[in-house]
Fold:
Amino acid sequence: MPFIITDPCIGTKDTACVDVCPVDCIHPRKDEPEFETATMLYIHPDECIDCGACVPACPVAAIYDSVDSTPASQKTLVDANKVYRAGDAATVAEAEGIVKAHVESHADLMAIAAEKRAESHGK
Ligand code: SF4
Ligand code: SF4
Structure:
């Protein structure tokens, strides 16, 4: 069961998780061309080894440890993590489209500062 990055990453995107991931499955990295325009980062579901190192590293509690533990308000972002593939423009665009739709349909969450947003995920 892969780990999932959710919406507190939007507006934060500090790559602290990338620095601790032992298998380089979080993208885009700062040295990848998609980084500048990416709305958030994504975990490759097949490459993640469920080590858990990224969770305490994230300053805004954006990462959940499974699809099942991801709150209902964040479920569409499971698909964004699932489709994103660094270096593949089509999947990058698809993932970003999912995130854009999430942002547009969750104005309430987006109005909350990133560091407080996860506290409201389950509400
Ligand atoms: S759980 Fe481990 S392998 Fe999976 S994304 Fe986080 S740091 Fe990387
Ligand atoms: S540590 Fe958290 S906020 Fe920073 S890039 Fe990773 S998921 Fe996004």
Summary: Residues 5, 9, 12-17, 41, 57-58, 60, 62-63 surround iron/sulfur cluster (ligand 2) (CB under 6 Å). The mean pLDDT is 97.
